[in-house]
Specification:
This protein is of the alpha/beta class. The protein folds into 2 domains: 141 residues, 3-Layer(aba) Sandwich (Rossmann fold), CATH 3.40.50.720; 180 residues, Dihydrodipicolinate Reductase, domain 2, CATH 3.30.360. Helices cover 32% and strands 25% of the residues. The protein contains 10 helices and 14 strands. Strands 8-9-10-7-11-12-13-14 form an 8-stranded mixed β-sheet. It has a 6-stranded parallel β-sheet with strand order 3-2-1-4-5-6, with helices on both faces. Helix 8 packs across helix 10. The longest helix is centred in the last third of the chain and has 20 residues.
């Protein structure tokens, strides 16, 4: 492809200023930022103020009717991702969805199939695959220092009343596991090879009854190679666990705080137990759009595929179904990864 792609965003809300972030990343990687849509006229006006040369809309259908837009990124509440994603793909455009991909695995599968039928790219903004600590872990694995991973524990949370906004509303957010849990599941499945055998979920609603999200969610993922992955999201945690603990046959990693730029490596050196601090690489989240541009312009492999993002949703949804059923359950659409 030699002509310049033209991109747009649906959702220019003020939270975290994500609309501007996506727009700048598009532009930096050779995709012209051409339009923004937000249901709130004030936010649409803000987009126009930030980027005077773009067109702005308050109706997604008007944006999607344009034939000169090639790529649309969705930055809206979780429960709107599937509908907007399907509308974008049906209009003949490439689609990027903010994480999580959607709420249900069936929605994710429908979008994946539609993207294939339309011959369009569908990806999810899992830019945390380029977090410095994660890149460092993968580098240590590639150097043989960790060995074969047989256990990963990932936790995010504290003790405190959740924020009063849509992310605390299960009907909109999908539940407590769909925010940071989507990152944690994605991290783990990116370093443990092979298929998923089953998932066992445990859910607690004990204290914050004014919110519909769960207070505490545990997801245990059983891999076909025997490894286990434990993901915890909680607003009931008095005694916090390390954010990350990775156990391998040759070494282990503990990252008490994934934002502090260091992790602790435990290993054995010629029979001597070694504990050492490792400085992590720099965060490189901007490489997400770099890869998207390489894929669309030059045919490079897409790193965050729709299938990999769908797998995260299937695990998260199965966690809740397992908790309700009181037993381990298989993960739907897992055959897409075999």
């Amino acid at each position: 492809m030699t002509t310049q792609l033209r991109g747009a965003v649906i959702g220019y809300g003020g939270a975290f200023n994500m609309g501007m972030q996506h727009a700048k990343q598009m532009t930096k990687n050779g995709i012209a930022f051409a339009a923004a849509c937000d249901l709130d006229p004030a936010r649409a006006a803000q987009a126009k103020q930030d980027f005077p040369d773009i067109d702005v809309y308050t109706n997604p259908d008007e944006l999607l009717a344009r034939g000169d837009i090639d790529l649309v990124t969705v930055i809206t509440p979780h429960n709107t991702h599937a509908d907007l994603g399907k509308r974008i793909l049906a209009s003949g455009k490439h689609a990027i969805l903010e994480k999580p991909m959607c709420i249900t695995a069936e929605e994710g599968y429908e979008m994946t199939q539609l993207a294939r039928a339309q011959g369009k790219m569908l990806s999810v903004y899992h830019n945390r695959r380029w977090d410095g600590w994660y890149l460092t872990l993968k580098d240590l694995m590639a150097k043989g220092i960790i060995g074969d991973i047989f256990q990963i524990e990932m936790a995010f949370g504290s003790y405190g009343r959740p924020l009063t906004w849509w992310r605390s509303d299960k009907a909109i957010s999908g539940g407590a596991l769909y925010d940071w849990g989507a990152h944690l599941v994605d991290y783990a499945l990116g370093v443990v090879p092979g298929g998923i055998r089953s998932v066992r979920g445990v859910v607690h609603n004990l204290l914050w009854h004014e919110f519909t999200n769960e207070d505490h969610v545990d997801s245990r993922i059983y891999m076909e190679n025997g490894a286990t992955i434990d993901v915890t999201i909680s607003s009931l945690t008095h005694a916090a666990k390390p954010h990350i603990r990775v156990q391998g046959t040759k070494g282990g990693i503990v990252d008490a705080n994934i934002f502090d730029g260091k992790l602790t490596l435990y290993t054995d050196l010629n029979g001597v137990r070694v504990e050492t601090e490792v400085q992590t690489m720099k965060d490189q989240g901007e490489k997400y759009y770099e890869n998207v541009a390489d894929h669309l312009y030059r045919g490079a492999p897409l790193i965050v595929t729709a299938e990999s993002a769908l797998r995260n949703i299937a695990v998260i949804e199965t966690t809740e179904r397992s908790a309700a059923a009181g037993q381990e359950l298989p993960v739907p659409y897992e055959e897409l990864h075999k």
